[in-house]
Amino acid sequence: MRHVIAILAVVVLLPVLADAQTPGRTAWGDPDLQGVWTNRTTTPLERPSEFEGRTELSAEERADLDAQAEANRDRPPPPGRTGAYNSFWLDRGLRTNQTSLIVDPPDGRYPTRTERVRESDAAFAASRDGTEFDTYEDLNLYDRCITRGMPGSMIPGFYNHNYQILQTPGYVVILVEMIHDARIIPLDGRPHLPVQIGQWMGDSRARWEGDTLVVETTNLTPKGDERVRNLVRAGSERAHVVERFTRVDADRIDYSFTVTDPATYARPWTAEIPMVPLGGEIFEYACHEGNYGLENILAGARAAEE
Fold first, then answer.
1. Can you list the domains of the chain with their CATH numbers?
2. Residue ranges of the alpha helices (H) in 75-234?
3. Whole-angstrom Cα distance, residue 131 to residue 39?
4. pTM of this structure
């Protein structure tokens, strides 16, 4: 009798277990992407030279790289530098099995940049010694906590790699914790805005291709055409970004984006970044409270000049 009860319990629970493992659908039938997700990882955007020609790491290599990252936490800053946040504030995550987030070009690195961009990136690098900040406009949009633009807002960096996805029958909303960008994306097939109207996060339109949400973004403002620290160059006004979100199981969204920007890169490039449940909530992002950071950066530059 005891065995019969156990078998019946398994039979009854099978549909429940299947539902727990299978991505669900919304009340109106779309694949359900909703929840609070994170894409934190220490996998670099570009493939390191030591993994040239390889797309994946072994389990042993991943464990070793995670151990190295842990051992290098909270190292003191170089002499003469103040340093930045300690590890308490950082949320870098672990390595994936990818050797780089960029999967195309096949070498896992950015395509060749145009001459225009190479010159401006060199100027950006030269300015990072902190002595060439004449006005607040000499700091980029990320330093000024305005936006990371696209695709920068969807790329993990140091912390706050968290995203809340909300769906309605006509829209998908992606709330980005970092710099609290909220992307409200229509699904009704409307055309993009006129080309002369640029926006910080661009103009996004979404559609479903099977179980994959495809989001196309255009109309990035030329004000965002700049190097965003060492993470990624924000797209020029000619950039076209195509994202794909696929809920592969209850605990994973396969996310990728492709950037086509002939003003910046010689060819399109694609990155793949898995998203997993955060297990928590989105918190308020408060950057440069009182704007003391910006004030002190400029004051430090004036002191260095003297």
1. 32-48+90-114+149-282 (2.40.128)
2. 115-127
3. 34
4. 0.85
